[in-house]
Amino acid sequence: METTIVMINLFGAVALLLFGLAQVKDGVSRAFGAKLRTGLASGTRGSVRSFLSGFVATVALQSSTATALMVASFVERELVKPRMAQIVLLGANVGTAVTAWIVATGIEWLSPLIILAGIVLYRSGSTNRQGGGTALIGIGLMLLSLHLLGAATEPMRHSPALAAFIGLLDNAWLVALVFSAGIAFVSSSSLAAVVLILSLASTGILSAGLIIVLVLGANLGGAIPPVVASLSGPASVRRVTLANLIVRAAGCFIALPLAGYGASLLDMLPLAAAKLPVDAHLGFNLVLAAIAWPFSPLLSRLMIYLVPDEPQTENGPKYLDAQELSTPVIALASATREVLGIGDLIERMLIHASEAFEKNDISTLNEVPLLERRVDSLQQEVKIYLSKLGREGLTEENGRRSIVIIDYAINLEHIGDIIEKGLLPQVVKKASLSLKLSADGYNELKMLFDLTIDNLRIAQTIFVTRDFNLARQLMEIKVEVRRMEKQSAERHLERLRDGRADSLQTSSLHLDMLRDLKRINAHIVSVAHPILDESGLLIESRLRDAGKQQHPVHASS
Fold first, then answer.
1. CB-CB contact of 412 with 375 (8 Å)
2. How far is CA 487 from the centre of its chain?
3. Are 111 and 136 within 8 A, CB to CB?
4. 142, 145, 147, 151 alpha-carbon torsion, rounded to 10°
């Protein structure tokens, strides 16, 4: 009976830990999801920035699996290079280890206060605060679970059965590695496995060598869930997650025979024995990152051979299934997924244009016309698909959603036209004629390019979530874009009046690119119109903007 109670307490504490981890992930995603995705996508242009992006994202989300799947999706959309993705995941692994180390600092006594603060923040109303409150509640529950795990494992200190089982594992390190990996895989969290090892280690029944082996297993098992989750994805996604598993597996099997020496080394250092699991976890991931980092280009090339591309198929729609038309909810969801893909194509076009503008290298623009034709074709397919759905008879709500999807697809198609027929010729002209903008003019356009790409990513999130606060934020950014465009044009004219030769040579280029980026942002912001219109704020905001501008004709631009 006593053993049953101990096991119930143990499993209950582990379940609370996993629930707390899930709450942190959900809360952070709700409060900062769009910013995290944008930061992760834009923070991978250099090795160090990639490592830090993975580290920060994982500490925030409390899930290296979530970071792995997120960065893999960016690789699929060609927003992140495969080599940089591997470095991001090295940072994510270190982020998980640092989180475990912080959790083990003995701050579990703060859990009631953190939960209370989370509940107060959650009840404050706004979506961001509710997300932050949920994350705080999750952190409090994680710390509370540590206390419960300690209480649950305390009776095991004198358990003959557990002592025999630990003795078996201590004499079969490979079995111990697999056992720990299985725990991490089942819980989908290396952090949860390491915390459980930490609790068992506090009882004094684990040898230092066995602790290191169990920590290695937790690292190995934590890399498997992203691979499983990406099995049905494209080759580019599977390469990222499989490469991360290969790196961790290689590290574990190299370190396994050295676990005894590692235990002796850790014993010599002035480290607390109770924190040995998290110290070993952090040390392993830091050493693995330092060793694997230089080999990331080689690993990326190797993965191309291990996971070859699928046979090329026509660039038609991926998700529009005629058989789903009889079920409008499913058909609308499929159309939404298809239009998100169109948005990803537009993002690639913008990134190519931005890189060509920065580097004066028009080779990156070769793909833009092809992408634009795909955008045209796909948005036409979406319109035809939803027009067929309309004939089946829709509810009022589904009818509105259908119109929103079509409107967003049309706006994305207009953006593609502006990029190909407006921005593309201007960027080619700048590069081919070796035109040099003034430093101020270049920075103004570069800032507007970056803001436009960020706005598109936010619009993609709004299109799926229909988040009111994000929609309102995007409408406010529209006013900021107008201000930036107006100020940049005025400063450019001032430079012309000052007789600046660089501004004279690039005057039409500068003003045309400002105009096109402003037009693109106007189409991007359109995704927020239906959401604000439903709340009655759209007309009010437009009238307010018109009053500020004192030019009503520009208020709806």
1. yes
2. 33
3. no
4. -160
| Alpha-carbon distances, residue 45 vs 81, 338, 365, 520 (angstroms) | 9, 28, 18, 24
542, 532 Cβ separation under 8 angstroms? no
- Picking from 408, 467, 527, the residue whose alpha carbon sits closest to that of residue 34 is 467
Q: Report, in angstroms and rounded to the nearest whole number, the Rg of the chain calculated over CA atoms.
A: 27
What type of residue sits at position 116? L
**What stretch of H or E contains 19?**
helix 2-42
Transcribe 486-550 into DSSP letters.
Answer: HHHHHHHHHHHHTT-HHHHHTHHHHHHHHHHHHHHHHHHHGGGHHHHHHTT-HHHHHHHHHHHHT
Q: What is the dihedral of CA 411, 415, 418, 421, to 10 degrees?
A: -100
Q: Which residue has the tokens 């693995």?
A: 288
Helix axes 190-201, 82-103, angle to 10 degrees: 30
- Rounded CA-CA distance 368/277 in Å is 51
* 89-113: average pLDDT: 83
Tokens, residue 318: 């991926």
- At 418 the pLDDT is 94
Nearest Cα to Cα of residue 142 among 14, 55, 31, 30: 14
Quickly tell me which residue has 């230089």 as its tokens.
Answer: 294
* DSSP state for residue 104 in the 8-state scheme: T
Only one residue has tokens 């105009």, namely: 515
Question: What's the rounded Cα separation, in Å, for the pair 175 and 361?
Answer: 54
Tokens of 272: 């607390």
pLDDT tens-digit map of 412-432 = 999 999 999 999 998 888 888
How many Cβ atoms sit within 10 Å of the Cβ of residue 400?
13
Distance CA(259)–CA(180), nearest Å, equals 15
Q: What is the pLDDT of residues 225-235, one digit of tens each?
A: 888 888 877 78
Distance, CA of 189 to CA of 69 (rounded, Å): 14
Report the C-alpha gap between 73 and 71 in whole angstroms: 5
| Cβ atoms of residues 6 and 434 within 8 Å | no
Cβ–Cβ < 8 Å for 289, 90: yes
* DSSP states of 330-348: HHHHHHHHHHHHHHHHHHH
Which tokens sit at 364?
A: 């990156």
DSSP state of 203: T
Residue 555: predicted pLDDT: 34
- What Cα–Cα distance (Å) separates residue 59 from each residue in 17, 98, 143, 235? 16, 8, 15, 28
Q: Which structure tokens are listed for 323?
A: 């058989």
DSSP symbols for 362-414: GGGGTTHHHHHHHHHHHHHHHHHHHHHHHTT---HHHHHHHHHHHHHHHHHHH
* Residue indicated by tokens 């913008």: 350
Q: How confident is the model at residue 549, as a pLDDT?
A: 44
Tens of pLDDT, residue by residue over 429-465, are 888 878 788 788 888 888 889 889 989 999 998 898 8
Phi-psi region of 204 (alpha: psi -120 to 50; beta: other; left: phi over 0): left
